[in-house]
Structure formats: C-alpha cells, structure tokens
Amino acid sequence: MTFEATCCCKQISITVSGKPEMNSVCNCTNCKQRTGSAFGISTYFKTDAVLNKSGDTKIYKLWHKEQNHEQNRHFCTQCGITLYWTISTMPHLIGVAGGCFSDSEVLEPTHTLNNSSKCQWVSFPSNWQVQE
Ligand SMILES: [Zn+2]
Ligand SMILES: [Zn+2]
C-alpha cells in the first residue's frame, strides 16, 4: 500500500509505503497554528518507507516545546503548507501532515497528545490512547 500526501497547490508531494509507525493527533498550540485547525495529525513513517519526494520546499526550524524536540519543517515555496518534517529525537522517522493524504486516504490516528491544550468542544474515539 502506498500513500501520497500533497500540499494545497500540488507543487510538492511525498509518497510513502506501508503502515505508519505512529499516527497521532496533537492538540498543542503550535499544531493548531501550523494547520489552521483545532489540532494537527502527525503521521510518522520510517525514513526508508519514503518512495518519492517532489517539488521545491523550504525549511524552517522549530523548537516544539511541548514535545521537547527540534523539528525541520519542509513547506511548499508556493502555497506555504508544511507537508513533512524530521525531528531531532527520532531521526529514523519522518512526520507527514496527516490531513495532506486527503487525495488517497487520511489514516485514522491511534492516540492523542497534549490533551491539556485540547479544544473543549473536541472529542476523540474512546479506543484511542490518550497521552497527556
Ligand atoms: Zn503548494
Ligand atoms: Zn503539537
């Protein structure tokens, strides 16, 4: 099974194979700002599961204080969407913005993070793991 994630303008894409190593919803302030939504979906694959990357990206560095790691975030030079990133504490993984798989399949997350920052009106399926 392969999955392709794309930015809004389709200039950049990333194609991965297999199942994610981790697929989580993060409720922190930064993920809200990154996505412009109530939470971010972070879908992590092994770096060797990446089949293809295309298009021009720029990178900005972010210290994710809630997660205590640094991220290198790759975003589209045209539409600005952050499509994928690497994190300092898990160099063997690549994070992909889960909602950007919307042309193929947005995979259901298995757990939620930073629930103390969760919007009051959001609730998640009861079978998901909750990690404060
Ligand atoms: Zn774009
Ligand atoms: Zn977050």
Question: Could you describe the 3D structure shown?
Answer:
The protein has one domain: glutathione-dependent formaldehyde- activating enzyme (gfa). It is 5% helix and 45% strand. It is built from 1 helix and 11 strands; from the N terminus they run βββαββββββββ. The site of one zinc ion has 9 residues, from loops. The site of one zinc ion has 7 residues, from α1.
Q: Which tags fit this structure?
A:
132 residues; mainly beta; 8-stranded mixed beta sheet; 3-stranded antiparallel beta sheet; 1 helix; 45% strand; globular; binds zinc ion
CATH fold-type name: glutathione-dependent formaldehyde- activating enzyme (gfa)
Q: DSSP helix count?
A: 1
- Please give the largest β-sheet: 8 strands, mixed
Low-confidence stretches: none
What coarse outline follows from CA principal-axis ratios? globular
Share of helix, binned: under 10%
What's the domain count?
1
Instruction: Give the structural class.
Output: mainly beta
Say which molecules are bound, naming each kind only once.
Answer: zinc ion
The radius of gyration is: 14 Å
The sequence of SSEs as H and E is EEEHEEEEEEEE
**How many strands?**
11
Mean pLDDT over all positions: 95
CATH hierarchy class name: Alpha Beta
Strand content: over 45%
CATH superfamily: glutathione-dependent formaldehyde- activating enzyme (gfa)
CA-CA gap between termini = 32 Å
Looking at the overall shape, the CATH architecture is Alpha-Beta Complex
Keywords: Lyase, Metal-binding, Zinc
Protein name: Glutathione-dependent formaldehyde-activating GFA
GO molecular function: carbon-sulfur lyase activity; metal ion binding
Family: Belongs to the Gfa family.
